[in-house]
Amino acid sequence: MNWILLIHHIPPKPDYFRVKVRRRLQKLGALPLKNSVYVLPLSDETTEDFQWLRKEILTDGGDVTICHAAFVEGVTDNELERMFVDQSNTEYSEIVESVEREGSPGEHDVRRFRRQLAEASIRDFFEAPGRAAATSAITALEKTFKGESVTSVSESGTGAVEVPARSIWVTREGVFVDRIASAWLIKKFIDHEARFKFVAAEAYQPRKGEFRFDMFDGEFTHEGDRCTFETLIDRFGLGTPELRAMAEVIHDIDLKDGKYERDEAAGIAAVLKGICRTHDRDGERIQAGSELFDELLEAFRSS
Predict the structure, then answer these.
(1) For residue range 33-90, what is the model confidence (pLDDT) as tens digits?
(2) Are strands 37-41 and 3-9 parallel, antiparallel or unpaired?
(3) Do residue 207 and residue 268 come from a single domain?
(4) Which residues form the domain of 62?
(5) In this structure, is residue 150 part of a structural domain?
(6) Phi, psi dihedrals of residue 9, rounded to the nearest 5°
(7) pLDDT in tens, 281-299
(8) DSSP conformation class of 157
(9) Which residue, 88, 240, 264, 277, has most beta carbons within 10 Å?
């Protein structure tokens, strides 16, 4: 098995910077190997997670190296896998203990535990056995009452920009959550005749009539703590309640920071992972993902 490492150097001040990075690494499920050295199982998703975190650290004045690794001495693949499983089992055990301490549960309590379970599942890279107990505990708690879920909606964006029709929209190969969702948004609301181009190089220089999205130096990409989908909504003035709700789901899946705590995030993430496993070609992934997002849009419109 191969692994991906993030090695960072963070200035001692300000203090909040180090805390922020540590919390982001915890959200990603990264294990500390040594001081300032963190490891995740190698995949397209974990690579992208570390790349975005690298950008954040560099922006705030830190230094980061990301590399692929195969361990020869010191730690084995099996030992690392057990460490990840133990980490996930600890999270699941804490959820079970919290559920068992709950006296008179309400809808908000179950929603909170469901969110915790969904976040823990995202960090569960090796299907830790503790997940079954946590799921059962929450299900048992849920049976003690009846309630309706509530959908939260953020404020609509302002301002709008325009791009020529039939533009070529360029993004990185191996599309996943944010790129699939952004491609759907572009085609459906921004440029109905958009054409997509998938490239390997981060430093790709666009030609005339091309726009880069979800690329590190792209015209439309992450801005602050916003994912590309959110950036597109704001830049093109598409802040309808249903698109804002979708943006919150995409944000929670893509950035894994729990900002909006959307209940739908875990389910949508699972479907998108299935799409990516089923389809190797980026165009096919976008087509299949677009059908999913069409249905999600209608669900939010009718809610």
Answers:
(1) 988 999 999 998 899 999 999 998 998 899 999 999 999 888 999 999 999 999 999 9
(2) antiparallel
(3) yes
(4) 3-69
(5) no
(6) -125, 120
(7) 999 999 999 999 999 999 9
(8) P
(9) 88
